[in-house]
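Please go through this protein, sequence plus C-alpha coordinates, and consider how the sequence yields the C-alpha coordinates. Keep your notes short.
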Amino acid sequence: MTDMDPLVPVLAGLVVDVLWFLDSCGDDEVDPDSAVKMMEGVGGELLRLPLAQRERLLQVLTDLAEAEPNPARREFLESFPFTCGLVEEEEG
Protein backbone atom coordinates (compact mmCIF):
# COMPACT_ATOMS: atom_id res chain seq x y z
CA MET A 1 0.00 0.00 0.00
CA THR A 2 1.28 3.47 -0.80
CA ASP A 3 1.60 6.22 1.75
CA MET A 4 -1.69 7.91 2.46
CA ASP A 5 -2.14 11.58 1.81
CA PRO A 6 -2.36 13.17 5.28
CA LEU A 7 -5.39 15.12 4.11
CA VAL A 8 -7.50 11.95 3.80
CA PRO A 9 -7.85 11.21 7.54
CA VAL A 10 -8.54 14.88 8.28
CA LEU A 11 -11.31 15.08 5.69
CA ALA A 12 -12.78 11.73 6.75
CA GLY A 13 -12.82 12.94 10.35
CA LEU A 14 -14.57 16.15 9.33
CA VAL A 15 -17.26 14.24 7.41
CA VAL A 16 -17.80 12.01 10.44
CA ASP A 17 -18.00 15.02 12.77
CA VAL A 18 -20.56 16.80 10.59
CA LEU A 19 -22.77 13.72 10.46
CA TRP A 20 -22.29 13.11 14.18
CA PHE A 21 -23.40 16.69 14.81
CA LEU A 22 -26.49 16.26 12.62
CA ASP A 23 -27.29 12.94 14.28
CA SER A 24 -27.02 14.38 17.77
CA CYS A 25 -28.87 17.68 17.24
CA GLY A 26 -32.31 18.18 18.65
CA ASP A 27 -35.24 19.10 16.43
CA ASP A 28 -35.04 22.68 17.68
CA GLU A 29 -31.42 22.98 16.50
CA VAL A 30 -31.62 21.38 13.04
CA ASP A 31 -34.66 20.49 10.97
CA PRO A 32 -34.85 16.67 11.14
CA ASP A 33 -35.83 16.35 7.47
CA SER A 34 -32.86 18.47 6.41
CA ALA A 35 -30.51 16.47 8.62
CA VAL A 36 -31.74 13.17 7.16
CA LYS A 37 -31.41 14.48 3.59
CA MET A 38 -27.86 15.66 4.27
CA MET A 39 -26.87 12.37 5.89
CA GLU A 40 -28.39 10.34 3.07
CA GLY A 41 -26.67 12.58 0.51
CA VAL A 42 -23.27 12.08 2.11
CA GLY A 43 -23.85 8.33 2.35
CA GLY A 44 -24.85 8.22 -1.31
CA GLU A 45 -21.75 10.08 -2.40
CA LEU A 46 -19.52 7.80 -0.35
CA LEU A 47 -21.14 4.78 -2.02
CA ARG A 48 -20.23 6.23 -5.42
CA LEU A 49 -16.53 6.02 -4.60
CA PRO A 50 -14.67 3.31 -6.52
CA LEU A 51 -14.18 0.14 -4.49
CA ALA A 52 -10.49 0.80 -3.82
CA GLN A 53 -11.27 4.26 -2.46
CA ARG A 54 -14.11 2.94 -0.31
CA GLU A 55 -11.76 0.33 1.13
CA ARG A 56 -9.22 3.06 1.83
CA LEU A 57 -11.92 5.13 3.55
CA LEU A 58 -12.96 2.14 5.65
CA GLN A 59 -9.35 1.67 6.76
CA VAL A 60 -9.07 5.37 7.62
CA LEU A 61 -12.27 5.15 9.68
CA THR A 62 -10.94 2.07 11.49
CA ASP A 63 -7.67 3.84 12.23
CA LEU A 64 -9.50 6.95 13.48
CA ALA A 65 -11.73 4.83 15.74
CA GLU A 66 -8.77 2.96 17.21
CA ALA A 67 -6.99 6.23 18.02
CA GLU A 68 -10.08 8.05 19.35
CA PRO A 69 -9.97 8.78 23.11
CA ASN A 70 -13.61 10.01 23.30
CA PRO A 71 -15.81 6.91 23.78
CA ALA A 72 -18.89 8.51 22.17
CA ARG A 73 -16.99 9.61 19.06
CA ARG A 74 -15.21 6.23 18.87
CA GLU A 75 -18.59 4.47 18.94
CA PHE A 76 -19.89 6.74 16.19
CA LEU A 77 -16.74 6.14 14.11
CA GLU A 78 -17.15 2.38 14.53
CA SER A 79 -20.80 2.46 13.46
CA PHE A 80 -20.26 4.99 10.64
CA PRO A 81 -19.53 2.47 7.83
CA PHE A 82 -22.75 0.56 8.56
CA THR A 83 -24.83 3.69 9.13
CA CYS A 84 -23.72 5.17 5.80
CA GLY A 85 -24.20 1.90 3.93
CA LEU A 86 -20.51 1.31 3.23
CA VAL A 87 -20.78 -2.18 4.75
CA GLU A 88 -23.83 -4.42 4.91
CA GLU A 89 -23.44 -5.71 8.45
CA GLU A 90 -22.38 -3.83 11.53
CA GLU A 91 -19.34 -5.41 13.11
CA GLY A 92 -19.58 -5.95 16.77
In short: The radius of gyration is 13 Å.
